[in-house]
What does this fold into?
Amino acid sequence: MKIAIIGGGPAGLYSAILLKKQRPEAAITVYERNRADDTFGFGVVFSDATLDNFEKYDAPSYRRITEQFAYWDDIAVHFRGTVHRVGGNGFCGCSRRTLLLILQERARELGVAQLFEADIEDEARFADADLVVLADGINSRFRDKYIGHFQPEVDLRSNKFAWMGSTRPLDAFTFIFQETEWGPFIAHAYQYEMGHSTWIFETDPETFKRAGLEGLDERQSADRMAGIFGWFLEGHQLLINRSMWRNFPMIRSKRWVKDNMVLLGDAKATAHFSIGSGTKLAMEDAIALADAMKHAPTVEAALRQYEEGRREEVEKTQHAADVSLVWFEHVDRFWDFDPVQFAFGVMTRAKAITYDNLTLRAPDFVAEVDRAFARQVRGKGFDVDVGKPDAPMFQPLRLREMEVNNRAVVSPMCMYSASDGVPGDFHLVHYGSRAIGGAGLIFTEMTCVSRDARITPGCTGLWNDEQQAAWRRIVDFVHANSAAKIALQLGHAGRKGATKLMWDGMDRPLEQGGWDVISASPIPYFPDSQVPREMDRAAMDAVKAAFVQAAERGEACGFDMLELHCAHGYLLASFISPLTNQRTDEYGGSLANRMRFPLEVFEALRAAWPAHKPMSVRISATDWTEGGITGDDAVDIARAFAEAGVDLVDVSTGQTVRDAQPIYGRMFQTPFSDQVRNEARVATMCVGNITTSDQVNTILAAGRADLVALGRPHLVDPFFTLKAAAWYGADGVFCPPQYLPGKEQIFRNSVRDRQDFDDLKIKAKPKTRAELKAEATKPLAAE
Ligand SMILES: Cc1cc2nc3c(=O)[nH]c(=O)nc-3n(C[C@H](O)[C@H](O)[C@H](O)COP(=O)(O)OP(=O)(O)OC[C@H]3O[C@@H](n4cnc5c(N)ncnc54)[C@H](O)[C@@H]3O)c2cc1C
Ligand SMILES: Cc1cc2nc3c(=O)[nH]c(=O)nc-3n(C[C@H](O)[C@H](O)[C@H](O)COP(=O)(O)O)c2cc1C
It folds into this structure.
């Protein structure tokens, strides 16, 4: 077998090593355009988990790599004169040059031919090769040559960054967030060998310009950085080596394989430097390729298997990198945060690290985060313990005069079980049990303001006395038997009305017994859905009046809060999204015009709803569709509602059009809540695939939302909050007297259960290499 590898970076060399081990008889050649010891960059970083993988696949190179590594366990966050250190991270750094020399040496030992100063222009010279590996890096000539086939998508990010080095010793992975007269600069720095550290500087394009970096050469810009970070560099130099400022390209390729050619490493996909995974991904690609070559019967099958098997992992890493880079791009959102909350945000930005796992490895840090959170709550006039506070989830919140005693919320969820809009016994038990279960705030399902405002025949309404009395019974029960507050969500289905019950076909039009539907524009939801009537002014007035009447009935029921449903493609949302609003009058066109009717309704409700009671709006912060609402629009939407007096923006997404492409995942809508809260400066509630109290605490402690709603988790567990309170030892949580023995038991057992769980986790976690090294070098205690 003959294998040609274009590119002698980590991907090319490691694939040569693994393939040669597997097929000693194969003729494998690496073609590298540079000289053997001619390399850019400073250090590379691997996690312990990545090193474990290297050990498994090639022990000799692993041993040599790890002999050369600098280890560290802590991440240090410097911000506004403070430093927060968090241990237990387990990372290693090594010089990129050393890494490449080790890999070259190992490849040579195994009999891989390496041709340096061989710039390959045309792969046609490898016509007789069975496999051609394209590991030619981020600017891959061959990916571009077959651009129509590989279909790369290059997302050039807005921030500027430059890779430099320094002689400043570091004992932690160090983030420095530095305010300057021009704006914020960030340094990501780590040591990779004795006396050498990598420094990546990052800043937004405006700050870059203001700082005059545009016209400077490498040395001059390094001097400028040395000026900014001089206080930390302590006289150490900044080193340069192709340290030009650039914009990071996030690259994703639709295809990785063409005939017998395969893209590896940066050539196929990149991951932002802030998660330190570029070299890791490149070497793990090599592992995946070697695995596929081992098991598949032909090269063609192996390449298919490589692409199919590896894609998900690469996309997961790229998603984490995306989330992380967006955090750094928007660091100004958090600039006025308490430093410890800021540091918590840095640590938890990419979702992998959470409140609970930080509690396990850095309990003092989390205790400080809790205290800072409690101090903020105390600053709002609550008499909470700031010395030994409850976890953020169990801290109270006030909206106007309504106080909720914890931040877990039952999200609005249609039960499709009303008859003629009247909630029945099912609803009493449903809402009642969730209130008893401890949530701080309960939302009703979307309750419709008139008969023809309903989504389905099973939706609840609030347009007549019978419905009002039925809701009053539920509200009274909640108030009499729990500490929960209850909010009424009012809505109008618009073009998604007259559809079947969820279990008969979500959003599908009723075959019989339907009613006429209205919307901003006459566009049906499904091609076979009813075509809605475009609303005229009279229809708008009628709808507004129906909302106001329903709100007045809501007040008569005793609801504590009112939410206006402006999300999910229902009537008011259909005005806001350009995908569903194609009007040419003053209610269509610009966002300000599209907001006009929803704001009118909101203002009418605000005037009718008692001034001491809060109001929220639910919005879809993105339509997940080209040309639809984006996160930036959501900030403007939130601002407009805030100016009209909204107290809380309930940030959901999507459901506007049926062919949207949401990117699901844990807490997938939380970044939108984060953006709205910290850019529009309005209180938010986030929701969407949040399933654990650990996630709730992570979101709250990082300042990404003020309340956290859970929908589906509450469907199967009304006692979500009480159980979480037991886990965190927050014994102030409400429990009705009838259930107190149960509460006492779960609180007693939880202390032990949590201890056992933590012990298990600690035992299951192998020691990091940094910990092992520290133990090995610890002086023996005197006998
Ligand atoms: C300027 C810069 C500095 C960096 N510094 C660091 C750092 O300090 N730490 C870190 O972790 N990561 C760094 N990275 C990222 C990291 O280098 C990559 O993520 C990782 O090296 C990817 O490995 P690779 O093998 O896919 O590509 P590369 O390491 O880029 O290797 C590709 C190789 O192919 C060669 N090549 C390209 N075209 C041809 C051709 N036509 N013929 C022959 N050879 C060719 C190139 O010379 C190169 O050696 C840096 C990236 C850049 C652009
Ligand atoms: C059965 C069901 C009914 C729902 N009904 C409503 C509703 O009436 N109003 C609303 O705003 N959202 C509604 N939603 C959306 C939820 O409030 C929530 O935003 C969504 O389920 C995502 O949260 P989760 O992942 O915690 O379930 C409903 C969701 C479900 C599962």
